[in-house]
Specification:
Blueprint: H1 10-35, H2 51-84, H3 92-106
Length: 107
């Protein structure tokens, strides 16, 4: 193990988890909610069988999409900040594992 290579990898975990959650949320929201229309955020509690119920589900879908966008934006900012640090060791395994953890937590 080389001692001259920075070993701090924790700065990659938070942005990876946030970006993974954002990407998983976008996948769920765009593909499953909008394109395939399999479900909505509240469809198991409020079935979208009336116009009012559909509007309520659409509002909650919009809040879900706004949250995933915010998580993605914060994840990008944290990744940018980690890139400016000199003590961060950029390892693909750490970052991809964090992405998978975030994706799995969002779906």
């Amino acid at each position: 193990m080389r001692t001259d290579v920075p070993q701090h990898r924790g700065a990659l975990i938070a942005p990876g988890v946030l970006l993974g959650a954002g990407m998983g949320g976008f996948f769920d929201g765009i593909l499953l909610h909008q394109i395939l229309q399999w479900h909505n955020m509240l469809s198991s509690y409020i079935p979208p069988v009336t116009l009012v119920a559909t509007k309520i589900n659409m509002v909650w879908d919009g809040l879900f999409h706004a949250t995933t966008w915010l998580m993605t934006a914060v994840g990008i900012a944290l990744l940018w900040h980690a890139g400016a640090r000199r003590d961060v060791s950029f390892r693909a395994s750490t970052f991809v594992g964090s992405l998978a953890l975030g994706w799995g937590s969002s779906t």
